[in-house]
């Protein structure tokens, strides 16, 4: 398996990450030695926070029921007695002007309900991830997006524009195009605690190696271009 500890170290150093990148994998059964989620959480993105803090665990669909919108984006059907929770949440969002109901059908969703979802810090993931989630500042995650453009092509990065609410749609979006970015929504920011100056980039696991291979080149290119632009600013700015 890939040396994900080295990959995490490269990402953390190059992108100035203050939180560990999170590896997420969808499987039919849990891998040996991985424990199930302990307790309950209010949202699917709460699992990101736990993994980034160092926990390795797996969830089953019922662990996601507390998050009706996240269950929707993960193609998880709520049990009959909890089905009204999705409409109640969406109705609240519509009533306060947060979204329009006709936006819901266009939200990216997983193609298949995951039987088991494994969460871990990237460096100690027990399986190859399907997606890797990073939170960081725009000036640093810009490098990751540019590396993805070099590795996957303009079509891939343009196919997945910068997403808004809900943040969890970035997972199916990345699986579809290879890369996705999200501003992060208010719920995600409450449940994960990321700061107001951070947002998310998500890379499909199958494309991670090719993106990483371009990251040093892109970082060096940006350093050279920064010097070029500083010299132009000094010589051409008159006021």
Distance separating the two termini = 56 Å
Number of beta strands: 6
Q: Which strand order does the major sheet show? A: 2-3-1-4-6-5
The helix content is 40-55%
Low-confidence stretches: none
Mean pLDDT score, rounded? 93
SSE pattern, N- to C-terminal: HEHEHHEEHHHEHEH
Using the CA coordinates, give the radius of gyration.
19 Å
User: How much of the residues is beta strand, in percent?
Assistant: 5-15%
Number of domains: 1
Number of helices: 9
Structural class category: alpha+beta
Q: How many strands, which pairing sense, and closed or not: the largest β-sheet?
A: 6 strands, antiparallel
Shape: globular
Note down, in words, how this protein is organized:
With 239 residues, the protein is of the alpha+beta class. The protein contains 9 helices and 6 strands. A 6-stranded antiparallel β-sheet has the order 2-3-1-4-6-5, sandwiched between helices. Helix 1 packs parallel to helix 9 and helix 5 (138-152) crosses helix 9. The termini are far apart.
Brief summary of the model shown:
With 239 residues, the chain is an alpha+beta fold.
Q: Which key terms come to mind for this protein?
A:
globular; 239 residues; six-stranded antiparallel sheet; alpha+beta; 6 strands
Question: Secondary-structure blueprint of this entry?
Answer:
Elements: H1 4-15, E1 22-27, H2 46-52, E2 57-59, H3 68-73, H4 84-95, E3 116-121, E4 131-136, H5 138-152, H6 154-159, H7 170-177, E5 179-182, H8 186-192, E6 199-204, H9 205-236
Helix pairs in contact: 1-9, 5-9
């Amino acid at each position: 398996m890939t040396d994900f500890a080295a990959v995490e170290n490269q990402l953390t150093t190059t992108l100035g990450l203050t939180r560990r990148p999170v590896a997420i994998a969808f499987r039919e059964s849990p891998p040996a030695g991985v424990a199930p989620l302990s307790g309950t959480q209010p949202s699917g993105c709460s699992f990101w926070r736990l993994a980034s803090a160092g926990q390795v665990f797996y969830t089953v669909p019922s662990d996601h029921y507390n998050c009706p919108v996240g269950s929707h984006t993960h193609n998880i059907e709520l049990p009959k007695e909890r089905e009204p929770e999705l409409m109640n949440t969406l109705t609240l969002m519509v009533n306060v002007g947060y979204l329009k109901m006709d936006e819901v059908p266009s939200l990216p969703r997983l193609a298949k309900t995951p039987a088991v979802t494994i969460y871990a810090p990237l460096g100690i993931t027990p399986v190859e991830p399907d997606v890797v989630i990073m939170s960081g500042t725009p000036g640093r995650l810009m490098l990751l997006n540019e590396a993805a453009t070099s590795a996957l092509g303009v079509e891939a990065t343009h196919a997945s524009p910068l997403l808004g609410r809900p943040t969890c749609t970035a997972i199916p979006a990345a699986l579809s195009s290879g890369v996705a970015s999200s501003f992060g929504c208010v719920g995600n920011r409450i449940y994960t605690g990321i700061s107001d100056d951070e947002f998310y980039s998500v890379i499909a696991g199958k494309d991670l190696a090719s993106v990483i291979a371009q990251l040093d080149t892109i970082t060096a290119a940006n350093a050279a271009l920064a010097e070029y632009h500083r010299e132009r600013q000094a010589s051409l700015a008159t006021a």
